[in-house]
Write a structure and sequence with these properties.
It comes from Dehalobacter restrictus (strain DSM 9455 / PER-K23). With about 280 residues, the protein is an alpha+beta fold. About 25% of the residues lie in helices and about 35% in strands. It has two domains: about 100 residues, Gcn5-related N-acetyltransferase (GNAT) (Aminopeptidase, 3-Layer(aba) Sandwich); about 180 residues, Gcn5-related N-acetyltransferase (GNAT) (Aminopeptidase), CATH 3.40.630. Strands 7-8-9-10-11-13-12 form a seven-stranded mixed sheet, with helices on both faces. Strands 1-2-3-4-6-5 form a six-stranded mixed sheet. Helix 3 runs parallel beside helix 7. The protein is globular.
Length: about 280
């Protein structure tokens, strides 16, 4: 297990009034604000990313900005419908490390998507279940870390760190857990973007002994209920493209496949492709 992953120096910086997240853990840079962007500033950001030896630059941009990113060599990898308070975002990427440009598992990942899209089973709440579901509290963190460590060798965010989980739980991430005999057996979270009223469904993990029982789908359904109640417009998830279970769960819940981010983040020991799944919470 990669226990150093809490020592990465990820940071928020500002380049020519543009907010940037420098993600050393995944060797990528994310452009967070867009209003003052010009070709000149994008080139400045690219130079910075090269200097920091990062392999990929990503941005969720407005439709009218697609051209300017394409001029700078970015490609569209997908869409998150309704990301900006109902307006769609295009997921643009620039591959600085050419080895990250091509998927190693494209054929397998396409088969998984075909299966999920054709599989017409719809989500139904489980009756007579042995587990209970509730919002996680700080006292759950030691058990949550234990479960994350059992499921993931490495992870794009520092979910093996107590301090990190305490901070995000307090600030902007809603965690739901499923519990059986006082033991946490499954986790899912919603990372809340209150500025744009979207939420990313993430940090999905189920104890291998309890898989195949619809638990993760139920947790995501509970998260969606909270999001709808609080006026969120869109839920989306970036799921591991080569993992059938999570893609199947999202498809069953009515999420729509909207693209794939190639070699996007370091998870379970290497770079993996992430499928984009999107669901409108407001009809």
């Amino acid at each position: 297990m990669n226990t150093d992953q809490d020592n990465f120096k990820n940071q928020y910086i500002n380049i020519s009034d543009i907010d940037i997240y420098v993600d050393y853990r995944n060797k990528r840079l994310k452009i967070l604000s867009h209003s003052l962007l010009s070709e000149l500033i994008i080139k400045e950001i690219i130079d910075y990313a090269k200097k920091e030896n990062l392999g990929k630059i990503i941005v969720n941009c407005h439709k009218h900005q697609i051209n300017i990113f394409e001029e700078c060599g970015f490609v569209a990898e997908g869409v998150i419908d309704g990301f900006f308070q109902g307006e769609d975002a295009t997921c643009m990427s620039l591959f600085l490390d050419k080895r990250r440009e091509n998927s190693l598992y494209e054929e397998k990942e396409n088969r998984i998507i075909d299966y999920c899209v054709k599989n017409t089973n719809r989500f139904e709440l489980t009756k007579n279940k042995n587990y209970t579901m509730r919002q996680a509290v700080p006292d759950d963190i030691p058990q949550m870390i234990q479960l994350f460590q059992a499921v993931f060798e490495t992870y794009p965010t520092p979910i093996f760190s107590r301090e990190y989980l305490q901070k995000v739980m307090r600030d902007h991430v809603l965690f739901m857990v499923a519990e059986e005999e006082r033991k946490i057996i499954s986790i899912a979270s919603a990372d809340l973007d209150k500025q744009h009223m979207n939420a990313e469904i993430t940090d999905c993990a189920t104890n291998p002994k309890y898989r195949g029982r619809n638990i993760l789908s139920e947790l995501i359904f509970q998260l969606e209920t909270h999001l709808k109640r609080n006026g969120f417009v869109t839920a989306y998830s970036l799921s591991r493209a080569k993992n059938l279970g999570i893609n199947k769960s999202l498809s069953k819940l009515g999420y729509i496949y909207r693209g794939r981010l190639i070699n996007n983040c370091n998870i379970s020991g290497g770079y993996e492709d992430m499928n984009i799944w999107v669901k409108a919470l407001k009809k």
